[in-house]
Structure prediction request, 143 residues.
Amino acid sequence: MPSSGQTANIFMITIGIIGVFGIITFALAAATLGTLNKRYSNLDQDADIVMGLVREINARLSSIGETSEPSTAQSTTTTTETTTTTTTATTTTTETTTTTTTATTTTTETTTTTTTRCIYLNNSAENCFFKQSAKHIFFQYAV
Prediction:
């Protein structure tokens, strides 16, 4: 059994070890929070840049007839054919025999054409940055 002096030393060493781990934990937490704040400020800047680009694109799209940047049109054609055949046979026996055969063929052909317009930034025809179709605007990031 340790004496009272040894017990006090053991207690002080234990408190010191706990204190060192507490200081390390606090330092790591502070460094993590500082890194997160820096990341969030970068996200705000990136969001502002994207919003500026969207405003520029909306301005260009609202004045489509007045724009001078090059554009390309791409067409996509989709053809769907559906064939349905139904045959029904009914036999009824009383004094006479009746046979009914019904054949139905339905063919549906649907053609869909989508035109996509490419919008270039800074009048350079190298990379298509935004693609506009009838209902959507597609963003492409090209370096």
